User: Fold this.
Amino acid sequence: MDNKYSRQIIFNKIGRKGQEKIRKASIAIVGLGALGTVAAEQLTRAGIGKLILIDRDFIEESNLQRQALYNEEDIGKFKAETAAKKLEKINSDVKIDFFVSDLNHKNISKLLFADIILDCTDNFYTRYLINDYCKKSRIKWVYSAAVKGYGNVMAVLPEKACFRCVFNEAESDETCDTAGIINTVSTAIASIAVTQALKLILNEKIEQELIRFDIWDNDITKIKVSKNEKCPVCNGIYEYLQGKKEKGIVIYCGNNNYQFYLKNKNFNEIKNKLKKIGKVKETDFCLFFEDMAIFNDGRVLIKEKSPERAKSLVSKYIGD
Ligand SMILES: [Zn+2]
Assistant:
């Protein structure tokens, strides 16, 4: 073990004791896109004890410009599964679990069973959900986001200011699909987030601040953050964790992918119904039928021109 991590152990901030702490730690990464793939690779090479990977989506051609673990031949495969396979080859010391799932208020406590959580998603809904869960369960987490040429990182500690203290609801959801991104910024932001996570594992002092880095302008800003007395989460109200904010339909920007949850959760019934209509391909996680993927928790992913068309196709073939 020593030789594999020797350069990290020589680094005086880590040392042999620090490496042992890293080896014993578990981290869950939510979202295996531009930030998540880079973070997962860095943590795997650093010899983290266990990684839990959660992602709901497939690999698309437009992901390859910045999503580090995927190749051209991976287009159409699930991100979480593909990332796990690549990471296992990089470092067999690391235990890796993966879930092809959409994180929601029902499954979060089962999926995010880790010492630290890394938010590498691209949406506020999931961040607020992670924030609720981590505050209530007293888990440390790291928020990270990148778009265009800049990004944010903030380590969130249970007793200090939370994500919702800093970011109010209804922030604009500018994403890589709508505003673009250069790959150097996602790599840099993931690196800052992973460094914060390693410092949390080593019990280093973490400043209560939002780190903003603009790689295009070479500008790093550290904004002091403090608790907001009106923050519902810090006052024990967990709206996202209670499912009060769950959306019926999620639109994946830019690529015409839509996500629904079916009321009918009888997977076998749905499977038999679709088999009568046409060709159904079955994998470990889902059924493929035309441009639809139907998961065993009732989630449907569909590629269509508009949410209305997507909804009508789902109800035509599967029902509500
Ligand atoms: Zn708060």
